[in-house]
Specification:
This is Restriction endonuclease. It comes from Candidatus Sungbacteria bacterium RIFCSPLOWO2_12_FULL_41_11. The chain has a single domain, classed as PvuII Endonuclease, Chain A (3-Layer(aba) Sandwich). The protein contains six helices and nine strands, in the order ααββββαββαβαβαβ. Strand 5 and strand 6 form a beta hairpin. About 35% of the residues lie in helices and about 20% in strands.
Length: about 200
Amino acid sequence: MDIFEKGKFKPLSNEFKQLGLLALRQLSEFQDKFDIHDTDTTINSIRDAIVSSYLGFDFINTEKHGFDAKRSKTGEFLEVKQCSLSAKRWGGTWNDTNTEKAKAFSNKKLFTAVAVWKGASDLQFVVFGKSNKLGKYLLSRVKNRKKGSRSTQNIGIEKLIEWGFSVIIPPGKDKKILLEQLFIYNKRLSKYISLDDIKTIK
C-alpha cells in the first residue's frame, strides 16, 4: 500500500475541537495549581497518586528519579506502571533499567503495581505485589542486552500473576466481569487465578 493511501480521514469535528479545548484548559488550570507543566507527567502523576492511595502508600515522589510512592510508617516503596485497557498487551514497561535498579525489584521492601485504565480516569484493575523473580528477570535482561542498546523490558500481567502478584479491583467493579476479561485476554491465567483470588479495595 502506498504511504499516501494509509490512514482514515474524516471531516474535522468542531464539537470534538471545542470540548477537547475545554478539557485541556481545565487540565492546564490543574497544572498551574500544582506547578506540573509537562502533560504526560501530569497525567501519570495523577494516576500514580490514585493507585498509591488505594494501595496504602501515603507519600508520593515528586521528582523524576526514584520510585513512585512510599509508605511512611514501614519504609516500603511502590513502582507504578500504567496500561490502557485497549492495548493489545496488558503489562508494564521498564525503561533504561540498570543493574542497581534491576536488583532493587528483588528487594522485599519494593512493590510493583500495573494499573489498567479505561480512558484517562477509569481504573479497571491493578496487578500488585512483589517477587524476587521479577528482579532476577530484569537483571538477566540487563546482562544479556545487545551492547550499546537501551535496556527496555516489557512484562505482561500474566507473568506477574504467575509470580504470585494479586489482582485488585476498585470499589464498584465486578469481579466476575473482570475474571471473564482476564480469561479472554489470556486463557492461561485460569491456572493462576479464580474469582476468590480477586480482591476489592475497601
